[in-house]
Every structure is written in C-alpha cells, then in structure tokens.
Amino acid sequence: SLRAGIVGLPNVGKSTLFNAVVENGKAQAANFPFCTIEPNVGIVAVPDPRLHVLSGLSKSQKAVPASVEFVDIAGLVKGASQGEGLGNKFLSHIREVDSILQVVRCFEDNDIVHVNGKVDPKSDVDVINLELVFSDLDQIEKRMEKLKKGKAKDSQSKLKHSLFKEDAEKAALEKIQQALMDGKPARSVTLNDFERDSIKHLCLLTMKPIIYVANVAESDLADPGSNPHVNEVINLASDLQSGIVTISAQVEAELTELPSEERVEYLASLGVSESGLGNLIRSTYSLLGLRTYFTSGEKETKAWTIRAGMTAPQAAGVIHSDFEKGFIRAETKWEMWSPFTLLFTCLFKGESGNSTPWVPPTFGVAYDDFVAAGSLAAAREKGLLRSEGKDYIVQEGDVMLFRFNV
Ligand code: GDP
Question: φ, ψ for residue 217 (rounded to 5)?
Fold first, then answer.
C-alpha cells in the first residue's frame, strides 16, 4: 500500500498523531487480514462509503478497504543531512516513502518546550526543507560526478539507448540542481517524461509530495483560520506546491480512548462534526493523485489503489505483480497454441518486430452503472459491462473484472 512518512521537529505532536492513527487503525483491524503493525508503522483504512454499497449489492462475505501505511520518522533535526550516522538514517527512511506528512506545531503551550524557543511555523518548515534540499544536492552532485566519469553507462548493447537516457538525466539533474540552490524543491521543476523517468532511481526527497499537517489546539478546531500560525502554514504550503490539513493531534488521541457514542458528543462540544483523521487519510490519498478501483464478488469486495492514468494491465498488476506479467505470458500462450497464430502475427507484428501483446478478457463497469443495475450480472445484461483492451485507462470507481485463467 501507499506509504506516508510523518516527519517534523521534536515536540510538535508527531508521536501523538501517529499513535492516534494506529489506535484508530486497530479499531478497524477486523477488516485487515494484512494488518501487521511494526512499532513505527501503522496501516489505516481509507474511508470509502462506496465499498460498503458494492459489498452489499454483491452480498460479499467481506469488504476490504484500500489502505495507507503511516510511518513515524522521528528524529529529523537541524543538521541531519550533515550527520553520517543517525541523521542519514532518518533521511534514508524518508527516501522509502511515497509522501511526506510534516507536522507543524501551531498550538501554544508553555509547558511543552519548542526546540527553537517559540511557535514559528515558517522556521519549522524551513529547517526541515533545508535538510531535504541539502540531502538532494549532495546526491545530485555525486551522481553528476559519476556520469562525468562515464561510470554510469549500461552494458554496451544498450549503448545508444543509455546515451540518450544519460542526456535526459544530465539535463534533469542540472535543472533540479539550479532549483535546489534557489531553495526550491525538485517537484517544482518542469521536466519532460524522459527526464522525469531518468531520475526516478535517485528517489529525491524534495520530489516527494508533502502535506503540511497544522497541529492546532482543541479550541482552534472549529475555526482554524482564526489562528495566524495556521494561515502562515496555508501560505507556505501554497508557495511550496503542497497540501495542508488542519488537525488537533491531542483531540485525535483523546478520541481513540472514548467509546464511540461519546465521540460524537465530544466532537460536537468542540464545534466539529467529524474526526480529522478521515480528512487526513483522504487528503493524503487524493493529493497524491491516487485513484480507487474495485473488484467485487461473493467472496469479497475490495478497493484497490492505483495512480491516475494507469492502464488496465497496470491496474491488474496492483492486485498481484504476476498479473501484469500475465498480460505478457498470455501473449506467448496465444502465439504458441492458437490456430490463428500465423494470421495474428502477420497482421499485428510491428515494424520493430514486437508483436502487439494479446490481452486476456478485461471488463469494467462504472460505479454508478453498477449500482443502478444492482449487480454485475444485471450490468452485463444491460450492456453496461464494457470489454476493455490493454490501453484502457482505469477510471475512478470502476468495478473491474480481470480473467486471467482463460
Ligand atoms: P513529537 O516529539 O513531535 O513526537 O511530539 P509528541 O507527540 O511527543 O508531543 C510532544 C508533547 O506535546 C506531548 O506532551 C503532547 O501531549 C503534546 N501535544 C501534542 N499535540 C498537542 C496539541 O495539539 N495540543 C497541546 N496542548 N499539546 C500537544
């Protein structure tokens, strides 16, 4: 599943938030056959009412939501990018996540020491950004050095291809280096598809999307805009092309300790109608450009996470990586056994000699159509179940049927 790393300076509320997320996740653990929670990793369901509608219509034995993995990455402090030991370890944890949630302290509390002496969101955000920028600059310099010395070439047979790739990478690295030196994140740089692909292997930290989590006092929850610190974070987030969510970590922690009937009452007393965790999870999901598709049958209805723009084979690959390969294996099978092999090969062999992959039967029906029809069978009868090819871009809410066993 998608991994989101929680970072921030000490004493801003990271652990409080992380623990609330994990406790909340445990409450939903019944739905999670795969709910293995390490000390600093928690898996949380993405709330989605459509899942339960589909599951009801298909009379599924269980409904399995999509999930987000939260990782508590404590210890990112000033100077981390210079540190050989611990600092680097924290940065390498960040390298492994898909998105970063930076908790920014917006609550005042004289009993809780702020590392810089006062609540100051701009300075907090700058400190962390600088560490990420330094780390990326360091990595880019090392990579450029390697490319210059010609040590990064692929095997000779791929020489032509790799020289082209190297040019794209060099161009991308130069653009990003310039941006970083101006204090701007790598994600703010405009790159073409080749350039973007060429630097993927570096997993640059400032390329990852960031969501700023403004941690406010409970008294600010009803009207966060009245807190000037929050407005500062909103402005920073827009400058840095990032998202923002307002939350009170303390309130979330307290909510997990209350029986569910008392939660609504407690939230109402603070002037809000729902816990902020749902919003945080949904924001994390949508700000990353993620989409959901479903598979639905008697055994289970399940929500799957894909990136916007993924094709049917890629979406199937999310279920099991073998499935994506299955699209290729199926091609071989067809070519070997089908009586139409010759005709097929003649018709579809491209100039390059690569044959068009054969696609096993794939069907899709839009969520609304499925619900209107009432079942997959009814959707099929009404002609709403579309047969899709390998280039089909899976749409938000599609209910998909992949037939790999033909
Ligand atoms: P971390 O170092 O960033 O992980 O911070 P912690 O989660 O350990 O929180 C540091 C202290 O701040 C703890 O004593 C928390 O109870 C407190 N704290 C966290 N969130 C809030 C909040 O929203 N309001 C107030 N008043 N205190 C908070």
Answer: -70, 155
Whole-prediction pTM value? Answer: 0.77
Q: What is the pLDDT of residues 132-190, one digit of tens each?
A: 999 999 999 999 999 888 765 554 445 555 667 888 999 999 999 999 999 899 999 99
Residues 6+ apart with CB under 8 A from 201: none
Question: Buried b / exposed e across 169-205, counting CB within 10 Å, b at 16+?
Answer: bbbbbebbbebbeeebbbbebebeeebeebbeebebb
Mutate to test the pocket of ligand 1, among 11, 19, 124, 251 (most ligand atoms within 8 A of CB): 11
Nearest to 376 by CA among 316, 297, 322: 297
Residue matched to tokens 């996740």: 25
Give residue 247's identity as a one-letter amino acid code: I
Are the C-beta atoms of residues 307 and 297 closer than 8 Å to each other? no
For residue 350, name the pLDDT band (cuts at 50, 70, 90): very low
Distance 125 CA to ligand 1 centre (A): 17
Q: How far is C-alpha 197 from the geometric centre of its chain's CA atoms? A: 18
**What residue ranges define each of the domains in the chain, with the CATH number in brackets?**
2-287 (3.40.50.300), 309-402 (3.10.20.30)
Distance CA 54, CA 65 (A): 12
Residue 342 has pLDDT above 50, yes or no: no
Pocket-forming residues, ligand 1, beta carbon under 6 Å: 8, 10-16, 74, 107, 109, 112, 215, 217, 248-250
Half-sphere exposure of 402 (CA within 13 A, CB side): 25
CA distance 138 to 177: 10
Contact 107, 1 (CB under 8 A): no
Backbone phi and psi for residue 209, each to the nearest 5 degrees, phi listed first: -65, 140
